[in-house]
Design a protein that fits this description.
The chain is an alpha+beta fold and 256 residues long. It has three domains: 43 residues, no CATH class; 84 residues, no CATH class; 99 residues, no CATH class. The chain contains ten helices and nine strands. The protein has a five-stranded antiparallel β-sheet. Strand 8 and strand 9 form a beta hairpin. Helix 1 crosses helix 2. The chain is elongated and about 65 Å long.
Amino acid sequence: MVVAEFRFDWCESLVGRYLITTNIGRPEIGTIWESGRHTVTALQSIDDIFLEKENKAQLIRTARSFSELADGLHAGQWVNLDKARFKSLYLSLTPARQREIIQPARLLWLLNTNQTARIFCEGRPGGILVYFADSENRVIHQFDLNTHRKYASDGFFSGALEMLEGFAGNIYGVDRFFEAVFRLPPEIIPELIPNSDTLLSQSGTIDRVGIGNAAEEGVIRIGFEFSHLGERRVVTTRAQEWAVWQLNLILKGTGH
């Protein structure tokens, strides 16, 4: 009974504060019906606040990646993350992606310094903004995380690489291609071949690999030409432009 009375008083107090803050926008009609209507509106608004907080709390608990977190946030919405929750989401990224968004040494400092009081994420179209703030809500560091990057399979085509637009002059034998790939730091390889399962599931063998001549929204197509029972087909995937640039340096003989 005491708990119920406490919750009722607390709710009543919230309603009161809401009515005070919206008082200027209400005409002074002085009728019981209007007063009751405003009270109902206040209660509905409080219900909306509770529901939004509950949804955000569930999103923080259940999100397995930054992508899932971003998908649950509308543009301008934000959630707070504790350091442990942030670390678990950060570690779900590939090592190359981790280094791309923030220097590891800086992150170690941000997660261990007393200056970091809050970590919050703000939704935006196609990703989230991540802020590290001090106890006075001053931003110490921030980064923009694009969670809608174009990976995985792009398409399947019958025929050879020369039949597809965009690969001319950039076609290599399978051995030469992979020799160059393996000269790169290991953490970069997943950014070049993000969907090896799709390639492994194909019948036949890869004879040649073509690298696209143009980038689109930060990605470049890579085409893998398979031969099987006298027929050729190409499976194209999308790789990160910066990783392809490093691979091209090696293939052209100017890289390490």
